[in-house]
Amino acid sequence: MKKNFFLGAMILMLSSCFTHSYIVGNGPQSGVEITEKNLFVIWGLFPIATSNTHLMAGGAENYGVTTSHTFIDGLITVLTYGIYSPTTTIVTK
């Protein structure tokens, strides 16, 4: 019984990966990528530092933005019991 509960809890905790993407203007033109981390605490409820995608784009009018909870981000969240929850933002010019 305990083994099934533990397995179910692990499946639920590891299934929360997400990706959010959007395009600005005509989308990426040169393929240059800039990556930054967003830092949250207590299961993502309180932001400590978030990336500014407009500044990351460096004034470009055409770019794409992807914000995701990568495997490494999820692993860090699990290892810290949700106290520290990072996400990754990638701007492609």
| Topology order in helix (H) and strand (E) letters | HEEEHEHE
State the end-to-end distance: 51 Å
Largest sheet: 5 strands, antiparallel
Shape by Cα distribution? elongated
Strand content: 35-45%
Radius of gyration: 16 Å
Number of strands: 5
- Percentage of helical residues? 25-40%
Give average pLDDT, whole number. 86
Q: Which regions have little confidence, pLDDT < 50, spanning 5+ residues?
A: none
Order the strands across the largest sheet as they lie in space: 1-4-5-2-3
List the domain count as a whole number.
1
SSE blueprint and pairings:
Blueprint: H1 2-14, E1 19-24, E2 33-41, E3 46-49, H2 53-57, E4 63-68, H3 71-79, E5 84-92
Antiparallel strand pairs: 1-4, 2-3, 2-5, 4-5
How would you describe the overall organization of this protein?
The protein is an alpha+beta fold and 93 residues long. It has one domain. Helices cover 29% and strands 37% of the residues. It is built from three helices and five strands. It has helices spanning 2-14, 53-57, 71-79, and strands at 19-24, 33-41, 46-49, 63-68, 84-92. Strands 1-4-5-2-3 form a five-stranded antiparallel β-sheet. β2 (33-41) and β3 form a beta hairpin. The protein starts with a helix and ends with a strand. The model has no long low-confidence stretch (mean pLDDT 86).
